[in-house]
């Protein structure tokens, strides 16, 4: 995965990074695309790739889709409850090479509830002043603590993290 990456701890640059979410209505009629802002995080590239780690936080209140009403609903008390839980967090628990590439496992904290998540690393490359990673996965929103809206939105939410991180001083 990262034989070309320089070992070290890198700080995620929120201004250059993105989190994209895709879900469907229960009946699959219309996909819903949204974004959330990254607050920050770190990526530690180890000499032994399997010892590498990552952590990141998202601004829960930054949920944006093409519908302002949906945005208010998702950030409101019934879904993300951003007033009481302003941050969504992730911390890795392992990195393993599988038949299809590298898989990062970790714990996702949403609304004070922890759930396991696995992300597939699609890109891991040097970038100007640091590293660039793209990781994708599917989160079961009910398992992640967002059980409301079962009749409105399907359980799986596809997540794509496009992360740029620079060397920590």
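Sequence proposed for the structure above (169 residues):
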């Amino acid at each position: 995965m990262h034989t070309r990456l320089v070992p070290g701890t890198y700080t995620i640059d929120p201004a250059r990074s993105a989190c994209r979410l895709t879900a469907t209505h229960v009946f699959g009629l219309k996909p819903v695309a949204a974004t959330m802002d990254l607050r920050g995080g770190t990526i530690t590239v180890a000499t032994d790739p399997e010892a590498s780690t990552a952590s990141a936080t998202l601004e829960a209140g930054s949920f944006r889709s093409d519908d302002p009403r949906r945005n208010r609903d998702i950030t409101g008390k019934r879904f993300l409850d951003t007033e009481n839980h302003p941050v969504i967090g992730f911390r890795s628990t392992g990195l393993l090479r599988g038949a299809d590439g590298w898989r990062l496992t970790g714990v996702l904290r949403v609304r004070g509830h922890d759930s396991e998540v696995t992300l597939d690393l699609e890109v891991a490359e040097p970038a100007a002043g640091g590293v660039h990673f793209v990781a994708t996965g599917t989160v079961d929103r009910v398992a992640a603590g967002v059980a409301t809206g079962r009749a409105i939105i399907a359980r799986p939410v596809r997540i794509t993290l496009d992360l740029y991180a620079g060397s920590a001083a």
